[in-house]
Design a protein that fits this description.
126 residues, mainly alpha
Length: 126
């Protein structure tokens, strides 16, 4: 793998996903806390906590993806300078890609469920 910088170029995008996901997680945590203080329906709180768990899982996947991309780029760069085989860096790149896809699928699932949850929440209020 002669292009050691390729996995590193993905990092800004993944980091933006981490930033936006952490903001979602903070807002959702505040909302759950507010629901608990207001003694809202237990079912609603449980659904929100499941959403929080899904977001947390996405964050973990994104962190693993970042680690995979960073290690892949570093190993490829070192291998290029030492003229050795960079096979392991390709595996790390694939691991990073798979975990990024797992994170994106978790975020898509979260978004879909969040819309349904909001609809149910506002439907109950009306």
């Amino acid at each position: 793998m002669g292009e050691w910088y390729v996995p590193i170029t993905v990092l800004p995008g993944i980091c933006l996903l981490i930033l936006s996901t952490s903001n979602i997680m903070i807002d959702l945590s505040r909302e759950v806390n507010l629901l608990i203080v207001k003694k809202e329906k237990v079912l609603l709180i449980e659904r929100k906590l499941k959403q929080l768990k899904l977001i947390n899982r996405a964050m973990v996947f994104l962190y693993i993806a970042v680690a995979g991309f960073v290690v892949s780029g570093l190993l490829a760069g070192v291998a290029e300078n030492l003229n050795v085989n960079a096979q392991f860096s390709i595996y790390m790149l694939l691991i990073g890609m798979f975990f990024a896809l797992f994170a994106l699928s978790s975020l898509i699932l979260y978004s879909y469920r969040a819309v349904k949850l909001r609809q149910d929440q506002y439907h109950d209020k009306c």
